[in-house]
Write a structure and sequence with these properties.
about 375 residues; Rossmann fold; alpha/beta; six-stranded parallel sheet; single chain; seven-stranded parallel sheet; 2 domains
Length: about 375
């Protein structure tokens, strides 16, 4: 059995940590031991999952000072852990963590596995980050991919990464999309009462939730409620938009809710994201039989049928699609759910075994 090392600054809600924790549990279930460096313990209680604390207050981890010290101190700490615990494999969810573990590769020649869950450079641009941050992160990204095994959640992400760094040579390239549960849950075939529209995920600019809020005024004659599941930096701005719309009695902020409690309470998921790696909320909705209307971006094209994808530069088309659904939900929604399940059937596979094989290659 292998002894594996990974790193992530702190556990938090969202799809990235969901997959990171699932990967760790898959390794543990197959008898491997996992060590990790973090500010706080991960929500994994297992005797072979070993937490190593980075010495910094959890509540002060959003400052530039923290990230500067983290980049300086984490590499020698990780190398020390690798030597002390005789680490045989390393993996990282994101370029920052792959970069921090480079000294292990240089000193011990342990093959790093770098999981690409999103495009951080594109995200920086969408969030208006300073140019020096973008350039620094791009340099870190280039160092991280040299001689690493790159595993992207989609082909378009790996192409974007390699296109930015033509002089860098990864050891291998794989695509491991997020999966659908092999057995899907039942969902009511037709809604009753007001149509329950929803978005789900971190409330941040990249998710583009404000776009949906601009579509709802003018649809008051139809019966609907709109739910926002999640929290994040956009919460206050979105609440202000709702207050100005006069639709506060129909729009509800639910915060973080266990996923098993979300989908029975949703008739239609709206996903207007500007960018995604592989959207967990969309996959969960498809698996639960909840229809999805989404932005026409590469990640959504890999999951949903073309007629459920709409361009973000045409809000009138989105509004017409919503009107059609609101006028005849019993006819349109079940057909959408069936089409999207057929379109995404290839995503039903044993993700846990695949990710373990990428981190700890099977012996010949």
């Amino acid at each position: 059995m292998a002894t594996v090392l990974t790193c992530y600054y702190r556990p938090k809600p969202g799809g990235l940590c969901t997959r990171l924790f699932r990967a760790i549990r898959a390794l543990l279930d197959r008898g491997h031991t996992v060590h990790y460096l973090s500010l706080a313990p991960f929500p994994i209680d297992h005797p072979r999952c070993r937490f190593h604390r980075f010495p910094w207050p959890v509540g002060r981890s959003d400052s530039l000072l923290f990230w500067a010290l983290f980049h300086l101190l984490a590499p020698p700490m990780l190398l020390g852990l690798a030597l002390r615990h005789r680490i045989g494999c390393t993996f990282a969810f994101g370029s920052t963590y792959a970069f921090l573990m480079r000294p292990i590769y240089w000193a011990m020649r342990i093959r790093p596995t770098y999981f690409l869950r999103g495009d951080p450079i594109l995200s920086h641009g969408l969030q208006g980050r300073a140019g020096w941050i973008v350039r620094l992160d791009q340099w870190i990204e280039g160092v991280a991919l040299q001689d690493a095994m790159i595993v992207g959640v989609s082909a378009h992400l790996t192409h974007a990464l390699l296109g930015r760094h033509p002089g860098r040579r990864p050891r291998a390239i794989h695509v491991l999309p997020n999966d659908l549960p092999i057995s899907q849950a039942d969902h009511p075939s037709a809604p009753t009462g007001p149509l329950r529209l929803a978005v789900a995920g971190i409330l941040e600019p990249m998710k583009n939730h404000a776009f949906i809020l601009t579509l709802l005024p003018g649809l008051e004659t139809y019966p609907w409620h709109f739910y926002l599941y999640g929290q994040g930096p956009e919460a206050a701005r979105l609440a202000a938009i709702v207050d100005c719309s006069g639709l506060g009695g129909r729009i509800f902020f639910r915060g973080w809710v266990p996923r098993e409690n979300i989908w029975p309470a949703v008739d239609l998921l709206l996903s207007p994201s500007l960018h995604e790696g592989m959207p967990n909320a969309v996959l969960e909705a498809v698996a639960a039989g909840v229809p999805v209307l989404a932005s026409d971006i590469p990640a959504h094209r890999e999951i949903l049928p073309a007629d459920q994808l709409l361009p973000l530069d045409d809000p009138d088309r989105w509004r017409r699609a919503l009107v059609n659904l609101l006028e005849a939900p019993a006819d349109t929604l079940p057909a959408m759910a069936r089409r999207q399940l057929r379109a995404s059937a290839r995503l039903c596979f044993d993700w846990d075994q695949h990710i373990v094989d990428l981190i700890v290659p099977p012996r010949p």
